[in-house]
């Protein structure tokens, strides 16, 4: 269950950043799916979600189907907080999907946890989504028109309080003629944005990826089954062998007859380059490239372009470690750990008093003073968003006795927000969008500052430049953004309130119980 004593940001979300009030790039979501009639699919999904926990820490859920019925269990919190033996025991079937969430559309609330459930006694479907749909307002209009203007008649969680693009998509997939695969092939060409989907009905498991393939999605093989996951690391943890990526614009269906694949849109690959920089686990492979190796190479390129005389190269743990290793290898400067991180703070941590909160970054990082004192340091981090974390870090290192602090960043300056599933700050809050390099260096208090060159970053991925999305660095958005005023993370929450059709008006506890009952008892025997 969700521990509501966890450290929260001012907007009420759980905080996992190095500073309690800072918001770094957040890890969107992770999806996992398995079809394996002779396995405990709920437990396999549980472990798969463990491997994807870094992609979202707000809520987690699993849906299981057995050929006759479909059951969902989800709640707020980490995978280990949501699930235990008691929660997993009733989830019996031969296929399952799972989700771990960081909210980019819709509030961080129980009603928005995934997998979302939609349907009625004739059709039931559960869906989990990684990404962000940019024309969700248009899709909501389509759904509203099909329901004669009354969303409360929708067969799904959109009628029960959910305010996510995923819930809209789930309801639309249960409407229209034909089987699920046919309905998906008609609907998905009209969905714009980033979407890596896994979904199931009582009889089949499905997966689909947007035509740009913005977010990763891979297919794996068990001895007696199939696995689909956001990252290859999740295949490894359940003992599945990697088969291939789900192709951009592809939808697959899995049942006892095997795997069926269709193309619903022409592929236009634009994989997110920030997956290589920060989002994905270093032990994951994307498009044939090990993420760890890409990050090490980014560090090497930093050393070549931004050399400096120093005594120690040290990472900001943990995301800066591979690039710091690369910098040290290329420069010949010794590599060492100058900071120790408490990985548990901000997850299940009693809210600090004001006096403790003033310690800021020390809640999560503590300097090794005997390592740092008198040294000229190269400090390697993955990105700078607002600059508050780096400012606090440089100050702490100087107080620990560092002679010089040279900051190196293994990504280019982040100057634009993401609309495809990463929760970046607004452009007004992005320090690189409003300051020169020298102004940023002065602001954070570093002796020097260097970013990786965009061309070097792309080269490190070993992917063609025209097949990568670099929008957060370049402002070049490969999927057109909506002109509709109904945009932003909370637009549907606001619209539902304005229409006075939000079921939460009748009391959040009542809605919670109604939705939980629907999720666990969808009406099938």
TrEMBL record:
Cofactor binding note of this UniProt entry: Binds 1 Mg(2+) ion per subunit.
Keywords in alphabetical order: 4Fe-4S, Glutamine amidotransferase, Glycosyltransferase, Iron, Iron-sulfur, Magnesium, Metal-binding, Purine biosynthesis, Transferase
Function text: Catalyzes the formation of phosphoribosylamine from phosphoribosylpyrophosphate (PRPP) and glutamine.
Keyword Zinc: no
EC number per UniProt: 2.4.2.14
Lineage summary: Bacteria, Bacillati, Actinomycetota, Actinomycetes, Micrococcales
GO molecular function, one term: amidophosphoribosyltransferase activity
Gene name as annotated: purF
Annotated stretches, region: Disordered: 498-525
Cofactor: Mg(2+); [4Fe-4S] cluster
Name assigned to this protein: Amidophosphoribosyltransferase
Catalytic activity: 5-phospho-beta-D-ribosylamine + L-glutamate + diphosphate = 5-phospho-alpha-D-ribose 1-diphosphate + L-glutamine + H2O
Glutamine amidotransferase type-2 domain location: 29-257
């Amino acid at each position: 269950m969700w521990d509501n004593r966890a450290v929260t940001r001012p907007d009420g979300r759980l905080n996992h950043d190095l500073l309690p009030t800072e918001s770094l790039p957040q890890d969107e979501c992770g999806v996992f799916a398995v079809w394996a009639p002779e396995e405990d699919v709920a437990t396999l999904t549980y472990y798969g979600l463990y491997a994807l926990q870094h992609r979202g820490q707000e809520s987690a859920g699993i849906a299981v189907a057995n050929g006759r019925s479909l059951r969902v269990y989800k709640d707020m919190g980490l995978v280990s907080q949501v699930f235990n033996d008691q929660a997993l025991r009733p989830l019996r079937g031969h296929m399952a999907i799972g989700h771990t969430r960081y909210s980019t559309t819709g509030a961080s609330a129980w009603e928005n946890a995934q997998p979302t459930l939609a349907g009625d006694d004739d059709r039931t479907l559960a869906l989990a989504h990684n990404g962000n749909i940019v024309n969700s307002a248009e899709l909501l209009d389509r759904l509203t028109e099909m329901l004669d203007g009354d969303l409360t008649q929708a067969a799904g969680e959109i009628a029960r309080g959910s305010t996510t693009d995923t819930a809209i998509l789930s309801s639309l997939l249960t409407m229209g003629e034909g089987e699920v695969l046919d309905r998906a092939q008609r609907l998905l060409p009209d969905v714009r944005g980033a979407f890596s989907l896994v979904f199931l009905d009582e009889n089949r498991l499905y997966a689909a990826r947007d035509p740009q393939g913005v977010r990763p999605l891979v297919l794996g093989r068990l001895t007696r089954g199939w696995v689909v996951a956001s990252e290859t690391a999740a295949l490894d943890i359940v003992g599945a062998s990697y088969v291939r990526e789900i192709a951009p614009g592809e939808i697959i269906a899995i049942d006892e007859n095997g795997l069926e694949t269709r193309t619903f849109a022409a592929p236009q690959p634009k994989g997110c380059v920030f997956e290589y920089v920060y989002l994905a686990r270093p032990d994951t492979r994307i498009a044939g490239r090990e993420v760890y190796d890409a990050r090490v190479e980014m560090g090497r390129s930093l050393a070549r372009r931004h050399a400096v005389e120093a005594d120690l190269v040290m990472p900001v743990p943990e995301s800066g470690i591979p690039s710091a290793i690369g910098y040290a290898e290329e420069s010949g400067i010794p590599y060492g750990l100058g900071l120790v991180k408490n990985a548990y703070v901000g997850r299940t941590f009693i809210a600090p008093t004001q006096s403790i909160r003033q310690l800021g970054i020390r809640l999560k990082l503590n300097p090794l003073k005997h390592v740092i004192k008198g040294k000229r340091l190269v400090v390697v981090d993955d990105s700078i968003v607002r600059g508050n974390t780096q400012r606090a870090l440089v100050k702490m290192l100087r107080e620990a006795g560092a002679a010089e602090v040279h900051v190196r960043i293994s990504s280019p300056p982040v100057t634009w927000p993401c609309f495809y599933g990463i929760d970046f700050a607004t452009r007004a809050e992005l320090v690189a969008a409003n300051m020169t390099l020298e102004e940023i260096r002065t602001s954070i208090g570093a002796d020097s500052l260097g970013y990786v060159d965009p061309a070097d970053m792309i080269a490190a991925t070993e992917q063609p430049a025209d097949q990568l999305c670099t929008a957060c660095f370049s402002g070049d958005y490969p999927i057109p953004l909506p002109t509709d005023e109904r945009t932003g993370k909370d637009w549907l929450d606001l619209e539902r309130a304005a229409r006075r059709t939000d079921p939460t008006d009748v009391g959040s506890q009542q809605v919670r119980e109604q939705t939980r009952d629907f999720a666990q008892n969808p009406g099938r025997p």
